[in-house]
Design a protein that fits this description.
The chain has 156 residues and is mostly helical. Helix content is 68%, strand content 0%. The protein is globular.
Length: 156
Amino acid sequence: MVVVQSPDIGAFIKDLRENARISLRQLAEQANISNPYLSQIERGLRKPSAEVLAQLAAALRVSTPAMYLKAGLLGSDDHHGVPTAIAADPLLTVAQKQSLTQIYETFVRENARAEETATPESAPAAPAEPTVATAKKPTVKKAVKKAVRQQAQEEQ
């Protein structure tokens, strides 16, 4: 896994906070961190720990993996791309971002469970056919992207 440091985590947090119409002081209180520390994070002067990022993600109602990915704490594999894209979309409200992220994560968990039950451990390897998880993954992405586009069109 390649870890990429993202210098714009502070700007990302600030954008989320402003889109949620929460003051710096309110977010600091909700995330249980000091106001000056949050200000330094937003200005790029301090690098938040994973714990602080998780607290900020909860307070901003975005997924923790999306926050970690944006901060460079996770590799940019395909699984985290969708939540990150949802979290970064300026056309969505915080509540819409949270709903879409939860739906996506539910689909991913269901596909993983279906793949586990569809592949018995003692059975020999099957020919190269798509599994439930790999077959549905593009469909999930398309559904999420379609929902985002529809929501954006409705709000215009």
